[in-house]
Amino acid sequence: MASLNIEITNSFTEVLPIDNRITIGRGNENDVVLLDGSISRRHAQVYKDEKNIFLEDLNSANGIWINGKKVVFRALENGDVIQIGNAKMTFSEEPLLEPTRIVDFREKANCNSTEIITANNILFQFFSSNKDIRQVCEIVEQKLETINATEQEKYQLGMAVNEAIGNAQRHGHKYNEEMVIEFHYLHFPGEEIVFIVRDQGKGFNSKNEVAHKTKLSTVEAAREIYEKGDWGGLGIKVMLKCVDQIEYNRLGNQITLTKYLK
Q1: FHA domain spans which residues (predicted)?
Q2: Which of 94, 166, 206, 238 is the most exposed place for a label (fewest CB within 10 A)?
Q3: Of 241, 245, 260, 238, whose CA–CA distance to 149 is shortest?
Q4: Could you tell me how far CA 101 lies from the centroid of its own chain?
C-alpha cells in the first residue's frame, strides 16, 4: 500500500497509508491536521483511482509544491517530495512498514514481551532517569540481536543509541528526570535501521557542531574540549563512527541516526 511520510517541523515522522482519500489542512476535521498559520483550513487532498494517486490543491491561500515546483493538481510518483507550509511529505509506493507501536514507560508498560523485541517500528517514551534509560538500552540490545548484521555492527549500533539517549539526558535535559525522551526504532530488514531520539530541551546549533566535529580526530576533539575547560561533546564523534548518517532537526533537539544494512 502506498503511503505519505509526513515530517512536521521539530516532530517525529508520521507514516500515513493511502487507502482512500486524505484531506490536509488546519481544521480539525482533516485527516492530517497541520497547525500552521500559512495553511488553509482545507488546504489539499490526496486520493486515488484505479491506476494513480493524485494530489489536489483545494483553493488554498498559499499553494502546494512538489519537488520544488508549485502545482494545483498532479498524479504522484514514487519519491515525490510535497511541501505544504512547514510540513514536508514524501510519497512512497514501497510496502508500508508495520504500524508504530508505542511503549510508554511512564505508564509502566510491559517492556519484556516478545512482540516488543521483534517489532520493527516502535516508539519508546520514558523519563530522563538512569533507570528508564537503562531499561530502554537493554531492550535495544535484545532487539539488535534479531537483525541481520555482524556482531561488530550490532555493538556499534548499540553504542550509537547509548550516546544519543545519553546526550538527550545530559545536554538536552541537564539531568532533569521529569523531562521525557522519545526514542523511535525503525528497522527496514535488508535495507536500513533508523534511530530517532528527541528530547524536550532547547536544542543547539547542530549544523556547525557536526561539521566541526567531522573535521577533527577524536584526540583533537578531546584536546579542544579540555583546553576550553568544557566537558562532553565526544558523543557526536562516537556516533559518526557507528552509523552511516546523522541528521539533526532545525531546533537541534532531535537526532536521526541511519545505518545501511548490506
Answers
A1: 22-71
A2: 94
A3: 260
A4: 14
Residue 72's CATH number: 2.60.200.20
The residue to which cell 514507560 is assigned? 105
Residue bearing the bigger pLDDT, 78 or 98: 78
**pTM (two decimals):** 0.62
Helix (H), strand (E), coil (C) string for 103-141: EEHHHCCCCCCHHHHHCCEEEEEEECCHHHHHHHHHHHH
Q: Are 35 and 29 in contact (CB under 8 A)?
A: no
Mean pLDDT, residues 209-226: 49
What pLDDT shows up at residue 23?
93
Tell me the average pLDDT across 34-48.
92
Cβ neighbours for 224, distance < 8 A, ≥ 6 positions apart: 216
Alpha-carbon distance of 164 to 152, in angstroms, equals: 18
Q: What is the CATH number of the domain that holds 191?
A: 3.30.565.10
What's the domain count of the chain?
2
Percent pLDDT > 90 in the chain is 44
In 3D space, the residue among 26, 170, 2, 28 whose CA is nearest the CA of residue 86 turns out to be: 26
The stretches of 168-217 forming alpha helices (DSSP H) are 206-215
What's residue 8's pLDDT?
60
- Rounded Cα–Cα distance for residues 217 and 33 (Å): 45
